[in-house]
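U., I forgot to send this yesterday:
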Amino acid sequence: MRVVDLLLEHSLQLRLQTPSTQARLEWEVSGCSPTELLDPTPFLDPNALLLTSGIGMNFSEKRTWDAFVERLAAVPVSAIAFATGMVHRVLPPGLATACAAHEVPLLEVPSAVPLLQVNRHIESVMQAERLAVINRGWTLADECARLANQGAEIVTLLAAVFDTVATPLAVYDSYGTVIAQYPEVVSWAAGIHKKPTAGVLSIPLPMGLNHPCHLAVRHHDIDIPLESLLGPVASIIALQLNRSVVVDASRHQEIKLLVTLCEAWEEATHNDVTKSFQALGLDRHSETTLIVADMSGEFASNSWQLRVALHDAFHTVRVTEFDGCLFAFAQLARDDFDTIAERLLHIDTRQPLILKSPTTSLFELRLSVVHSLHLVRHVETPQLAPELGLSAVIAATAGRGAREAAKRFLAPLAAHDMRRTSQLVETLRSYLRNDAHQSRTCAELFIHRNTLNYRLRQIENLLRVDLATVDGQATCVFAMRLDELETF
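Result:
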């Protein structure tokens, strides 16, 4: 309800007694406040309509009227409705002058209209408006529920809400990170979930969590009571967000078992992996995309973004977190892989994350798991994994005595280091880690090039390999990696 609506209501016979602009008459009325207090401001809500007959206001001093209106304008009130007839035969001139000076519309209530009638009319209209907003909210929630049942993305739900409220929206996680927004071109500041921000309404989403996500809405110059309108739809958005959490949580142990079996090449058979894979409800004949991401420290704030992005990109997703990493197996892509990769690899360009292109067999998937787990510990940014990784091949060949052979192969170096307190094992490890680059190895070990050459000759003699050849270097790399697996 606006001030001008009261003037257009013929049953109230209200008359405007101040020169007021159209913009001022368009102000929303938040409620009706009947009062006869000389200073009612402590009890007034912003944009309330003050309704009074002026009992006790038997003064004519203009400064007193000016002070009275000045306090009301500071609230501010939407207008003053002053009744004439019983106490004041006509409007006090000082009141009209003060209202004009402070740009507060002054409405005269004629003696033929009881103040109770004005109050009841305003309350009934506002009750009808509140009911209309609630109905719009449930209609919007019903539309979003229909979209959610069809597997719509969170962004699609926000777009549906945007069509109703015509103002930007975003969903924040508990860390203050935007996990979805509409429109995409709008910028959102961090920290809305922790402190009020001017021009932004933050609505906690009912998710049953200690630290829920929030729906943030820009509300500049919006007359709609957004809390009432968006209450029902906030529940739908929360349910859609919780959908992945509930499914993922119920699969946590099964996903963890699958990852463990993929790593245990010597203990777990291919049949064990197949059973575990199918127990997740995944199709062994469909392509499977693998994602492994470091979720430790500051990267924990990306969990919701990754989960939402995965469910938006694939029809079937199995995702959970353990040992500081997020593991996800995804099937039935909604888009081509390049588009999905572009989206996933740019959620946080500082996060160690490995994305493996779709695999077509469980043999290949098993290698991908081992390879990705190795890579995620050695990268500092999101990476698309190469099709074949040395770490995965080594893990696959770790059985059948390979570890024992590697241990025996490196034993002469360990024995020499113990007898002579030398550093041949560490020298070989540094040399291979630096891709057989002598300058970088010397810088890492703080030794002279002649010292490095002397140690390399000792290593070659003890191991009976030629470190100048690819074959010799590869043999040592395999042995070192297999020995690390044994140590791990």
